[in-house]
Amino acid sequence: MYKETIKQAFHKYPITCALIALCVIYYIYTSIVYGFDMNVYQGLAAGGYNPVYVEKGHDYYRLLTANFVHFGIMHIAVNSYSLYNMGSFIESLISKKAYIIILIVSGICTNLLPYLLYLFTGYGSSTVGGGISGVIFGLIGTVGALYFHYPHIFRDVAKSLALNVALMLGISFLVPSISLSGHVSGLIGGFVSSYLLVKSNDAFDR
Question: Which of 63, 97, 137, 183 is deepest in the core (most CB within 10 A)?
Answer without folding.
Answer: 137
